[in-house]
Amino acid sequence: LRGLQVVEHCCSVTSLQLGETMPNIAKDMDTLSFRTPLGVCAGITPFNFPAMIPLWMFPVALVCGNTYVVKPSERDPGACMMLVDMLREAGAPDGVVNVIHGAHDAVNFICDHPDIKAISFVGSDQAGQYIYERGSRHGKRVQANMGAKNHGVIMP
């Protein structure tokens, strides 16, 4: 259900993507912001949340105007494949979301390919540090959520 909550939010995100206008911030000066797609983005997902994490990734990328390459965990790729099949049945054009399978070589492909502009990763610290270092070395935006647990702040 957590993954579907993100999909539900994505259905309303288009109004948030309009950008902002702030007129008269100074004499004869206005500011405008434009949100533009990056192009091809990619996600590398963990084995322990095979449906939720892909749903945190590709729906957001799509509504922001990007295409997506997702690499599910080689340990349980079935849930991700089912999600992409459902996306296709819902009418998404071929090539909007693509799935690649594999382990180390598939990760290196994502980190190295010049057309992929951003990577989202959820998984272990060791893999995340590797993906962050290799992907950012190639000029990609890398989001690495590593070793996630339920964090808390304890106050008096």
From TrEMBL:
A GO-annotated cellular component: mitochondrion
- Provide the catalytic activity annotation: 2-methyl-3-oxopropanoate + NAD(+) + CoA + H2O = propanoyl-CoA + hydrogencarbonate + NADH + H(+); 3-oxopropanoate + NAD(+) + CoA + H2O = hydrogencarbonate + acetyl-CoA + NADH + H(+)
* Source organism, top-level taxon: Eukaryota
The coiled-coil regions, if any, are none
Q: Give all residue intervals belonging to the Aldehyde dehydrogenase domain.
A: 4-155
Looking up PANTHER family in the UniProt record yields: MALONATE-SEMIALDEHYDE DEHYDROGENASE (PTHR43866), METHYLMALONATE-SEMIALDEHYDE DEHYDROGENASE [ACYLATING], MITOCHONDRIAL (PTHR43866:SF3)
Q: Which family does it belong to?
A: Belongs to the aldehyde dehydrogenase family.
Function of this protein?
Probable malonate and methylmalonate semialdehyde dehydrogenase involved in the catabolism of valine, thymine, and compounds catabolized by way of beta-alanine, including uracil and cytidine.
- The name of this protein is Probable methylmalonate-semialdehyde/malonate-semialdehyde dehydrogenase [acylating], mitochondrial
